[in-house]
Specification:
The protein has 176 residues and is mainly beta. It contains no helices and 14 strands. The strands form 3 sheets. Strands 6, 8, 9, 11, 13 and 14 form a 6-stranded mixed sheet that branches. The N and C termini lie far apart (98 Å).
């Protein structure tokens, strides 16, 4: 058995070897309720979530890289884990006009990876592009199944209307 810690004030027992919590609460002299929370398994794949669209020239809302276990549950990592980010088109790496950022303002230097810190299962990043198009964003990590996510960037709405006339067509007096 692993080391056992007691948190007397809340009645929590933690067995570190099995990473399980037992919560006990007494609701009367005859009632004892136990709830067991099991930690997810080891990470086997990378998942990407976040917005499916954005606007050209604006930083997207947060996109999240999450490591998942074989059952699809978020898997906490024991050590810092680097997840590589990029753009793909038809399975080929793509030089994109946009960039990925660690900050919500997309004001720092562009990034090509995020680090999921030990004790966590996910990390956020942001996308900014100057070209209205759709693109696949990829996320891969060593020895884990990678993933791609499609993001569409909508053009900005028009800000002015320009009318011009073809100078090779003569204007006729009298509206004719």
């Amino acid at each position: 058995m692993g080391k056992i810690e007691l948190c007397h004030s809340y009645g929590l027992v933690r067995n570190k070897q099995r990473s399980r919590l037992l919560l006990s609460a007494f609701l009367g002299p005859q009632a004892l309720f136990l709830a067991q929370f099991a930690q997810a398994g080891s990470p086997v794949k990378v998942s990407l979530s976040g917005p499916d669209s954005g606007t050209v020239g604006s930083c997207t809302d947060a996109m999240t890289v999450t490591l998942l276990d074989a059952s699809g549950n978020a898997a906490v990592v024991a050590n810092n884990t680097v997840v590589n980010l990029g753009f793909v088109l038809s399975g080929q790496a793509l030089p994109a006009t946009g960039h990925l950022y660690a900050d919500a303002d997309c004001a720092t230097n562009p990034i090509t990876s995020v680090t999921i810190a030990a004790g966590l299962s996910s990390a956020n990043f942001y996308y900014l592009d100057t070209l209205a198009a759709g693109i696949w964003i990829s996320a891969t990590a060593s020895s884990l199944a990678g993933t791609n996510k499609w993001v569409d960037l909508d053009p900005l709405p028009p800000t002015k209307l320009v009318l011009s006339r073809n100078s090779s067509i003569p204007l006729m007096a009298g509206g004719g």
